Amino acid sequence: MRSGMRLLQVLVLLLVATAVVSLTIALVSADTGLAEKVVLVAMIGGCLYLAARVPSYLARLETRLHRP
Question: Could you tell me the residue ranges of all domains in the chain?
Answer without folding.
Answer: 2-65
